[in-house]
Write a structure and sequence with these properties.
Keywords: DNA recombination, DNA-binding. There is one protein chain. This protein folds into 2 domains: about 10-120, DNA polymerase, domain 1, CATH 1.10.150; about 130-285 and about 295-305, Intergrase catalytic core (hpI Integrase, Chain A, Orthogonal Bundle). It has helices spanning about 10-25, 30-50, 60-70, 85-100, 130-135, 140-155, 160-165, 195-205, 205-210, 230-245, 250-255, 260-270, 275-285; strands at about 115, 120, 170, 175-180, 185-190. The chain has a 3-stranded antiparallel β-sheet with strand order 3-4-5. The protein is mainly α. Strand 1 (about 115) and strand 2 form a beta hairpin. Helix 1 runs antiparallel to helix 2. It is built from 13 helices and 5 strands.
Length: about 300
């Protein structure tokens, strides 16, 4: 890799970043040089791979850069970069993106992977909008349609799907209530028209038939053939079956889980310029920077209405 940044706009961004970390005291000790070196290497890698405008950086480039980072040789000793070094580089990039968002060099940001150690990443496989539509098209019953609609369209965690009750579905207002999410946090999630219709059909048809012959009253939203609450493992197995129904080798190889659907909707919201605060509340995150860093522009409910059409 060359030693200096050639692109004038990148040179300017690097100077701006230097001012950014100076004002916030990130340059104390060895930190300043570490952050500068990390961002310099990042921008030079982008240059060498034909990305000369900061707004051209997408999740694809970030994944490729991450793969480069965890496999590139260590310049001071044998082997690759140490785990702590990789984590520090990724942290420096999160500061850089914060600076880019603040000075409006970018309107919506790229996500930054979290390093899992042992050469692994916490990046989860996700589906594209077209792949979501494909799975939806191959749903064989109302339960499958409702599961995809709620897991993806509402971004629920597996545990939240399992504990969801019928009383948590407010069809009249188009809202879904997560009464106790991660950290015992309650949140209200908006439902798109497509999600509302899938949920309505499931409640009035398949779910109604399943609980009709049940020996006890069950308020659970997702119920099995005996009318009892479906557990998380059963819901995941149902999704796996739905993926296999598409006969798509590529989809099957992705090993998609319910939590992957949650990350998929987060990606799609970010790509459609949803506000970072909206995404945070939509997913029930305590902090903005969690597994991914999502960036923002407009907070509009219709951002979640187009994906399942």
């Amino acid at each position: 890799m060359k030693k200096e940044i050639q692109t004038p706009s990148y040179q300017t961004l690097l100077k701006d970043f230097d001012s950014f970390i100076t004002v916030r005291n990130y340059k104390l000790g060895r930190g300043g040089k570490m952050h500068q070196n990390a961002v310099t290497e990042f921008l030079m890698w982008m240059e060498e791979n034909g990305i000369t405008k900061i707004k051209e950086i997408t999740s694809t480039e970030m994944i490729l850069y991450y793969e480069y980072l965890i496999t590139r040789p260590n310049k001071r000793r044998e082997g690759t970069l140490a785990e702590q070094t990789i984590k520090s580089r990724l942290y420096s990039l999160s500061l850089f993106m914060q600076n880019l968002l603040e000075n409006r060099s970018i309107e919506s940001g790229f996500y930054i992977p979290s390093y899992g150690g042992n050469g692994t990443s916490k990046i989860r496989n996700t589906l594209t909008v077209e792949e979501i539509k494909l799975v939806y098209a191959y749903c064989e019953n109302d339960l499958e349609s409702a599961l995809l609609s709620v897991a993806y369209g509402c971004g629920l965690r597996r545990s939240e799907l399992e504990s969801l009750n019928v009383r948590d579905i407010q069809l009249s207002t188009g809202e879904l209530i997560v009464r106790e999410g991660k950290g015992s946090k309650r949140r209200v999630v908006p439902m798109s028209d497509t999600v509302i219709e899938s949920v309505r059909k499931y409640i009035h048809n398949e779910r109604h038939e399943r609980v009709l012959n049940s020996e006890h009253f069950e308020d659970a939203f997702f119920v099995n053939m005996r009318g009892s609450r479906m557990r998380g493992e059963h819901l995941n197995d149902t999704l796996k079956k739905m993926i296999e129904q598409t006969n798509s080798y590529e989809l099957v190889q992705k090993e998609i889980t319910l939590h992957c659907l949650r990350h998929s909707i987060a990606n799609h919201l970010a790509e459609n310029h949803a506000e970072i605060e909206f995404i945070r509340r939509f997913l029930g995150h305590t902090e903005i920077n969690t597994a991914y860093i999502y960036a923002i522009k407009n907070k509009k409910r219709n951002k979640i209405t187009t994906f399942l059409k």
